[in-house]
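Throughout our pipeline, every protein is held as a single compact record rather than as scattered files. This encoding replaces a full spatial description with a residue-level series of whole-number codes. The remainder of this section carries one protein's record, kept here as part of the documentation.
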Amino acid sequence: MNEHLYRSDTETESPEVGVLLADHFRRPFGFQGHRSKGTGDWLIVYTIHGSGSFRVDREVHVCGAGDVVILSPGVPHHYASNEAGEWDILWTHFVPLPDWMPWLALPRTEERLICLHLRGDEIRGRIEQTFHRLIRDASMSAPVNRELAKLALAEVLVLLYHYNGEQESDRVMDERISQVIRYLSEHLHLKHRLSDLAAMAGLSPSRFCHLMKEQTGDTLTERLTKMRLAKAARLLELTSRRINEIAFDVGFETAYYFSRLFTGHFGISPTAYRQRMWQRQKTSL
């Protein structure tokens, strides 16, 4: 047992939400991190060689060469390098664009970890090459580099999603749930009744709820809220529309409720998020 996974007296600082970060670390035994409330963004960690572990509640996942761990926002987690030499990892913190969300619909453990093992030099080499492009461009401030970093990250997500589909075809998201998620993404502004969505999937409400949780790791309400918040974040960044208009357009009944959920999810208010995104655009011109 790696005792460093259970030393949570010091919280590890979370990165600024909305900033795409990526890097390559080589860390000896003793390297550790503890985030009792998770982060406001997503985290991908790919192990090149060596060994490290993640702990989420009682679940411990040991990572070796070719392993990928993905953590969604708000998942409390602890990580540490193991005794088997240096833990050589590639990592990125990011907030996905709405169009990327289907690629993150990967199987989860009971504790909401996404864990993949990449078999074969070809897929590992492709992921590592793409990750290094992501790291290089994410470290630069020019607009062209930021766009290239997004493209590299999107490539990583697509590669992982399709690899999972090829290797674990029986675990690809159930088409009935995929159909409902596609419908929701196109009708975020509407109110949705559980009975109607279950009927769309051809399932009873109880079976639909069970399958949604099994396939996505989220309840229906959690999934719909995340989709609405992701769309809202994009509208805040790309438009000058008022916050209450954006809130209503993505399906929230009040601007206050929207702001409360947005702040809880991203760790920053909608107004501050917009100002930060716009300031980044101005300073990079």
Summary: The chain is about 45% helix and 20% strand. The CA atoms of residues 99 and 139 lie 24 Å apart. The radius of gyration is 19 Å.
